[in-house]
Structures are given as structure tokens and as C-alpha cells.
Amino acid sequence: MTGRDQPYRENPLLRLSYSLIAPFYDLVISRPLLHARSQSLRSLPAEVAGKVLLSGAGTGLDLPLLPPLHHYTALDFNAAMLARARSRGAELQVDWVLGDSMALPFADAYFDQVVLHLILAVVPQPAQCLREAARVLKPGGTIIILDKFLRPRQHAWLRRALNPLSRRIATRMDVVFEEVLSAVPGLEVASNVPLLAGGWFRGIVLRKTGE
């Protein structure tokens, strides 16, 4: 697989950073986002089993909150993160994949649902990440998103000022969801609600249109 097939290689510092922070990631992220994660994952079907992709699964903080009836695929670009996730998926049907959320190693229309939690604002190319999620999703399926987004035309001077550094070591501060969505045809917004930090973190559900 070439570097062109793995867009995440555009930012080697980010890969190194997440390897270093993997042991501490849960301490910082787990408790503040627990309620938001739970709210977002309620959008997963609870009665009909399906194939669900966790794209950018990280250390698996979503796993204890997932309904057990589905078959999950947990993908992340960082082996240290996936290693920490495995114990959290012990009670679920999970396939573990080391891979790139911007170049998914799956066939078109393979999954019934895709979960994008805290990944669109991390990857160098958020529109490509969303485009790949839509590609591997079956028509009528949903993409469940939890992330921090700026509103269109929102100034947010401090976040934008911090972005040149933060995007290289942890996460982007300048992603406008509406701009990302406009670059990916075939998706419609089913819901879009504020979940945390005065609406900076949003829970969004997209549905794939078409036959």
C-alpha cells in the first residue's frame, strides 16, 4: 500500500503523538464525553442486527456503550490505541483493523451503520473521511457523528489561533461541518443536536440516500 493510499501519512507527527498519549487518553477524554457518547450511540438500532463500522475507534471508549446484537469492525490508524481497545470489546463481536479512515479497506456498501466519533476533526482531510464512510455504507444506512465543529461563519478566534499547532499533535479546531458535508453528495441530515460545550460538540446523524 502506497502513501497515496494512506492519507493519514500526511501527518507523521500526529501518528507519533497518538502513540505517546494512548496511555493517558482515557484519563482526559473518558469522563467529560461519556454522556455525549451515550446520547450519540442511541442512534444505533437496538432491535435489528447489522454490520457496524467504528471508524477511528481509538481506545474503544464507545465499546462498553454499544448494543451487543451487532457485528462491529473497529478501525484505527494507531496500533497503540487499538491494543488498549481490545479489552473493552471482549463482550462484543468485534473485528480489529489497523487502517486509515480516509482510505477504508472495505468494499462499497458493506456496512449497515458507520460511527464517526471524534475522528472528522482529527484527520487531515475530513471530507475524504466522510466520503469513505459514505462509500462503505449501504443505501438507507446512517453515519453517526460526534465531534467538535465550528458553525458556518463563526469567528472563534482563539480556536483558530490554536489550530496550526493542535492539528499536528491532537485535533483540529477549525472544522466546519456544513462545509465538509457539502463536499460529499448522497447524504442527508437526519438530526443535528448540540451535546456539549455550548454546542461546540454536536451529535449528527446522516442518512445515505439512493437505492
List the topology elements.
Elements: H1 12-41, E1 51-55, E2 71-76, H2 79-85, E3 93-98, E4 111-117, H3 126-136, E5 137-148, H4 157-169, H5 177-182, E6 187-196, E7 201-208
Helix pairs in contact: 1-2
What CATH architecture do you see?
3-Layer(aba) Sandwich
E-strand count = 7
Oligomeric category: single chain
- Distance N terminus to C terminus? 32 Å
Structure class:
alpha/beta
Low-pLDDT runs of 5+ residues are 162-170
Strand order of the largest sheet: 3-2-1-4-5-7-6
Helix content: 25-40%
> What is the gyration radius calculated from CA atoms?
16 Å
- CATH topology, which one? Rossmann fold
Q: Average the pLDDT over all residues and give the rounded result.
A: 83
The figure for the number of domains is 1
Q: What string, H for helix and E for strand, traces the elements in order? A: HEEHEEHEHHEE
Largest sheet: 7 strands, mixed
**What share of residues are in beta strands?**
25-35%
Shape: globular
| Helix count from the secondary structure assignment | 5
CATH superfamily: Vaccinia Virus protein VP39
The CATH class label is: Alpha Beta
Question: Your description of this structure?
Answer:
By secondary structure, this protein is of the alpha/beta class. It has a single domain (3-208), classed as Vaccinia Virus protein VP39 (Rossmann fold), CATH 3.40.50. The chain is 32% helix and 26% strand. The protein has five helices and seven strands, in the order H-E-E-H-E-E-H-E-H-H-E-E. It has helices spanning 12-41, 79-85, 126-136, 157-169, 177-182; strands spanning 51-55, 71-76, 93-98, 111-117, 137-148, 187-196, 201-208. A seven-stranded mixed β-sheet has the order 3-2-1-4-5-7-6. Strand 4, helix 3 (126-136) and strand 5 form a beta-alpha-beta unit. Helix 1 (12-41) runs parallel beside helix 2 (79-85). The two termini are 32 Å apart. Mean pLDDT is 83; it is low at 162-170.
